[in-house]
Design goal:
Blueprint: H1 3-25, H2 67-87, E1 89-90, H3 96-101, H4 107-121, E2 131-145, E3 150-162, E4 168-182, E5 185-193
Antiparallel strand pairs: 1-2, 2-3, 3-4, 4-5
Amino acid sequence: MNKKALALIVGGLVILVAIFYFIFIYDFSGQKNQTPTDTTSTQQNGPATPVVTKSAPVTRTAEKRTEADQSRDNATQLAIFFAERYGTSSSQADFSNLTDSQVFMTDSLASATSKFIATERNKATDGSYKSIVTKAAVVDFTSYNETAGTAEGVVKTKRLKTETDGKTSSYDQNLAISLKKVGTEWKVDSVTWK
C-alpha cells in the first residue's frame, strides 16, 4: 500500500471519529452540570461569611436518541463514507479503493469485488493516468427496515475526473446502495453507479 492511500485511509478514519464525537458525545447545549455558588457578605465589619445556595439540577431538554435513530445514523454515515471511498480511484492505485472498501462489504459483495479486481488486473492498460475523486452530498433512503436489518437508497455524489493531459471534468452521479445488518453492524450488500 502506498503512502498516499494510507494517508487517505487514516484521514477518513479521523473524519469518522470526529463525526462520531460530534454526533454522539459533544454537548452542544453548552450547559455544565455545576452548582452555582453565591458569596455575599452578611456582616459589614469583619470577614465575609460565604452563603452557598444550591439550585435545582439542570436537566437536558434535548430529546434522547433511540437505538433505532442511532442505527439509522450509522447506516447513513456508512453510505456516505463508502460512496466516497468506493468512488475515488486512480489508474495508479491498483484498485485500492475497492480492496480497502471490502471491510465494509457483506461477504457476497466482497467476493464479487475480488473477482472483478482479478479480471480487471489481467486486462491490458494503455498506461495513461486517470483519476476520479468522489464527494458524497446526501443519502436518500427509499426503504429502511430496522427490524429486518435492510436499507436501500441513493447516495448523491459530485465527481471530479482528471485525464492524463490534466483536463478535468466535474459531474453529478448517483450511487444506488443496498445495506444489510450483519450482527450489529451495517454492511454494504450491493452498489451500482447510475
